[in-house]
Fold these 3 entries.
Entry 1:
Amino acid sequence: MTKPLQAVRGMHDVLPEQTPYWQQLEAEVRQLVRAYGYAEIRLPIVESTTLFKRSIGAATDIVEKEMYTFADRNEDSLTLRPEGTAGCLRAVLQHGLAHNQVQRLWYQGPMFRHERPQQGRYRQFQQIGVEAYGLPGPAIDAELILLSARLWERLGIQGLTLQLNTLGTPAERVRYREQLVAYLIQHVGQLDADSQRRLQTNPLRILDSKNPALAKLIAAAPVLTDYLAADSQAHFAQLRAMLDAAGVAYVINPRLVRGLDYYTRTVFEWTTDLLGAQGTVCAGGRYDGLARQLGGRDIPGIGFALGAERVLAVQAALGKKTRSSGLHACVLMLGTEAEIAGLVLSEQLHTALPQLRLQTLVGSVKSQFRQADRSGASLALILGSDELVAGTVTIKYLRQDRAQVTITQDQLADFMRDALSHDANDTRAI
Ligand code: HAM
């Protein structure tokens, strides 16, 4: 027999046993961003290729080698979005959402990068992103960082490190870049092939090199923060003061440069050592020049995106549990007549108790009990021939050592309402 077709390499199904963890993460995010005044925006998965070239930067790894780019039937060059910031700002500009007003937005959805797949790095992955527009001062930088810190707390994730840096303005970076290139040219013989190429295209990215042979050279390189003008220094100092006052710990990492070119001033990453090489679970920063670059007016912007697979992997590594999603019962329908009565009874319960999880079963008695057990249900509502004649239903406790009870079908809704309110807040391990 030939093997059935498989998912595309680097792209994964989220199986039913995993979806509760996704739903819990999404629910926590939804509640949190709402509390901070962020509104959801839903964006297309496909954008024009130009958008990403202009925003992420033509000389970045993402644009150079990772985009899923194709010509559509009109020969327009389109790209599956590799990230959400560019599309979000495109929409903000297109619809005038930040015209004389502040906008706080969030989005979620799949992103696509043709990277080498490995643990924590996929070709389709899920980001949740948060972006704010129209606020040039450091208070919003702090707000976004505090929001992300609160999310970790809500998710029960401890031990992440907040890495913080400032990249200054484009003008400051030009001055710095000259000094950096001059330094690197002096040591060009020590650079690997990739860094030699980057020396021409994107020298700042050399600072991000993972090649241990370059570590010493990079450690001794000029530091961008030494080239910042007073305004950028003050912005960074004020942000640090705010984080200190709010009690959020951070590590200043002057080598943090990020893999996208649009950043100005603040950049940050939340990292963990629980996930091996792919340790960044969430990252972002300010991008004040991007609106202008995309043909709009000057609109300051800042945001971050978390990688949902990585956040869930950290939760799993920490042994986090998910709350059970409420009382779950199965209706065991023993016989053809019971199938009719069972469906009617189930429909009545769905009407009376919309929050109840209720599933009807068919098959042999043995098979129905096996199905009920596997489903995780805590109650079996049994309708056999005796119950049909007597107008009753027998309730069997599947997870508790309690005697079964028989009640009339009229009493069932009240019985289940009572069971729902007593439903122990049980948890399941990830
Ligand atoms: P990014 O650092 O490219 O930034 O991605 C953000 C997060 O997405 C990463 O920290 C990581 O958790 C996750 N991620 C990235 N690539 C992969 C992958 N191949 N597999 C699994 N997870 C991945 C951005 O995308 C910016 N748009 C963030 C931002 C928003 N900056 C400002 N606003």
Entry 2:
Amino acid sequence: MLTVVAGVTPILAAVATRALVDELTRPAGTDSGTLVALGAIVVAAGGLGTVLGYLSSLVAGIQRRAIQFTAENDVHKALTRLRGLRRFEEPDFQNRLGLAMQSGADSPGAVLGSCFELIRSAVMIGGFVGVLVVTWWPASVLLVVAAVPTLAAQRSLARSNASTTETAMALHRRRFSYQTLLTGLASIKEVKLFDLEGLFHDRMMSYSARANAKEIAAERRTALTQSAYVLLTVAVMAVGVVYVIGRAASGGLSAGDVLIFVTAVTSVQTGLGSMARESARAGRAVRLFHHYMAVLACPPDIASGPREPTALRRGIVFEDVWFRYDESGEWVLRGLDLTIRAGESLALVGVNGAGKSTVMKLLCRFYDPDRGRITWDGVDLKELSTSELRRRISAAFQDHTVYDLTVAENIGVGDVARLDDRAGIAAAARMTGADEVARELSDGYDTLVSRIFFQGEGEQPGTALSGGQGQRLALARAMMRDDADLLLLDEPSSWLDALAEQHINRELIERRRGRTSILISHRLSTLREVDRIAVIAHGQVTEIGSHGALMALNGSYAEMFQAQAAAYTEASLKVAGHE
Ligand code: ADP
Ligand code: MG
């Protein structure tokens, strides 16, 4: 309504101005009361138009935020349907996600804003075309004819502008990644020490410049095309203006008629220009909006099965499992056969890149095997409900995360239903030495683990932890579900000293007695107490058995173990020698 009224006010002002001019130039003399009234209408119409403009912006702003809120909510809800990791590792999907976030937030508002502008322009044009019909009707016909190609051209502009935005997204994502490297705490030490600021800064700015160049080229094309079409309308209008002035000179039209004709011509031109611009903008927004719709409609990457996993009674079996991360990439697992017996503690050992972490990720069903199958008490993981399966697993992954949350929350998120269970959190913390970490902090379990946010409402920033302290929290998080059917620990103590690792492993194995655990560690001496050790090499299990059995076998495990033991003995001899 605001928009319609705002579109009418210029017409009202123009009609009143014409009456005013005609009144002033009336040969029979002027009536001062009428003049004052008309003047007041002209001024009031102008003021009203401006105020209505402000009010429309306010309403549009409120609507835009409501739409952004909904879009953000919807995109993130849609992402929870993706249960695997594969999509998140696809550059195309990340681009689309960026475009979906952007277009979901902007497009509806842009379309809405453009619609308002189109309505306002249409009302204004409609009114002034009425004026033109009264003054000299052929002008209105010419005008409509000239408008058709202008508006038709906007379709292709919309298409090319949308594809510019799509290609620019990949450049902007690279730009953001360098920006994060330059400002994020994860990389800042190396950036400063290796003096990488210049390199990363230049790269960031070069991506920024390339994105800008693409966008400016598109904007230039749009402006030139639109200007060319406007010139066409101007030519048409010039004919009309010359004709009307000629008729006024010969006494056929009044000064007021000439004035309103000229006003109408310029207003219609402005209105058409704005319609062209807005329809291109709306067209681009609609085209980009399909990325948002695509993310919302994105099918689940991993289909959750219908069956509920039972408590693990027999074991988990990898049957001839082949797996690779990319369709064209190297096979990571090449026909891996492995039985994990219910209740046992099993260690996976192997060189870097052997596929140990991959085995753990497959167990969580972050990916499905390309060939072969993994069974849980005889049932293929694909037939099980993924959320129920994951509820039966606890894990500390190799690249452990420390969240910008309090110490208690950092541990409690391991079993989110018990986020406020302080006793449970403290018990999990004791198992991994995280309780000592908490004790040394000023606010104990309520200390915020973050250097970039303020603690609570206060002005104090949170506290940073050392790598080992962070790892103790991550391990305690995994222990929140210490009754899980399956516990996965992927190099859980790589940041801890050997003694602490030995202590924690012993503690965990003790607590997990009778429950199934899989442990990955490069410190073979800390694995002596597990039930069995499996060596993974070339995508297969090459040796499996207890520490004693593998030592007796005298294969690659025995070799690795002796090499490490020799290194340790040498190191301790050196220390002893110095003393
Ligand atoms: P590790 O035994 O050291 O834990 P991983 O299972 O992490 O080895 O990795 C095995 C192989 O798979 C490596 O060659 C690695 O490069 C590759 N790889 C691991 N994760 C990914 C991933 N997300 N995408 C593509 N390749 C991966
Ligand atoms: Mg690994």
Entry 3:
Amino acid sequence: MSLALELVPTPLETWEGECLLLLQTATPEWHLPQPLRDWDQQRWQGLLQETIQETQFTAKAQTTCAVRLPGPIRKLILVGLGDNPTLETLRRAVGTGLRQANSLKAKQVAISLPEPFRDPQGVRAVAEACYLTAHQDTRFKSPSPDSDKSFQVSSISLLAISPQPALTVALTQAQEIAAGVILARELVNAPANIVTPVTLAETARQLAQTYGLEVEVLGQAECEALGMGAFLGVAKASDLPPQFIHLTYKPTGESRGKLALIGKGLTFDSGGLNIKTDTRSIAMMKTDMGGAAAVLGTARAIARLGIPLEVHFLVAATENMISGRALHPGDILTASNQKTIEINNTDAEGRLTLADALVFAEKLEVDAIVDLATLTGACVIALGSEIAGLFTPDETLAQELLAASHSSGEKIWRMPLEESYNEGLSSLVADLKNTGPREGGAITAALFLKNFVHKTPWAHIDIAAPVWTEREGGYTNKGATGYGVRLLCQWLLNRANQN
Ligand code: BES
Ligand code: MN
Ligand code: ZN
């Protein structure tokens, strides 16, 4: 990341530099703040006021007003926050403003925040938005002289903020969490011929080596020994070896708890013999390891930040392919908790890999398990492109995750684990089928998973929708979103502080 971000005590009145982003909360009679009104008269002959009037800027959320000036400030961008701005309004406004600055070819930017946001939460939100807006994944493009597409802003100062300890901590948190998000984004953006199960395992090993985590990767034989028939059933058709990744963060001092995070790690999902017939759907299936990416991104951030909790990061990594060894519809698999599963649809493979990962997690005797998975198209239909589905029988865990969602800005919505829908999973020949009816598909998928957790508080988050976006705006760039890292990090930070 080549973005320098710093807190500077310099007040707005005395700052001089290339580009100023002025974030403004809307008021009934919004007008330009005082020092700028005077400057505008003295230095710019009222050009700024004139532009504001012309563009009818009133600080409404997500509106901007940009002016080129003769100096010493050469570009000034007003960004509206609307009334009652939240941290999410702030992040989006910062993203919007930076995009505008970038399109004006600014390299050095200063941001002036409304007073109430000059606290740790505000600083963290702004800094995260800066890093996330700036990240553009151009790894697979030839370098071109036409650099128009890449982000050019290289230094950002947050004005009128003295670097006190709590604020510096917030800045570090933002930087490490953003780096985790970027790791996740890059893993998801990379296609299936580049990120394979072995690549995911190598990434985990590298994280372990660089940041002092413990890592163990179980291959085919070790998974067989553990009886992971569900995971290995999915892996059978692939020419690539399955990898069960177990990465562990242990705090240096006392530990106040023990948690497990599981990420679905299908580096490609063709559907298997129930092949995905829609060209666009199958072409998106490099994103089917978005849960794994989020878990690895979180591991990176947590290892760098250090928290008094032991955290286990688990990924059952493989691909869902077709070959002479592929699962046949109708096959029966035995998972590592001895439950038998009739495969009535080979495209419902994620839940099979998660089943064995959940059993493994429970054996670790953790206080709670959270899994993130691009699990169902049904969840995309239910909640639309930005919101993940939260499924949990545990009230406390639900409230914790909803709170983390609220402050991190990664949206989740609680969905029901309707017990009566279990009927849809009943099989004539085995303990259960892997898919129920089309209706309520996200719910039956979650109910399927519930069969593999017995006593540990558990939550499942279906991230099929937010793993990827075609929209650009605010602090969101097109492509992989790195969804889940901010949510999980916030949940872990909250848990670390609460006990
Ligand atoms: N990986 C897909 C789910 C998915 C869909 C992720 C769209 C991202 C975007 C999953 O393995 C799958 O194929 N699910 C099936 C389940 C069905 C067979 C019950 C689905 O949603 O169609
Ligand atoms: Mn599938
Ligand atoms: Zn899948």
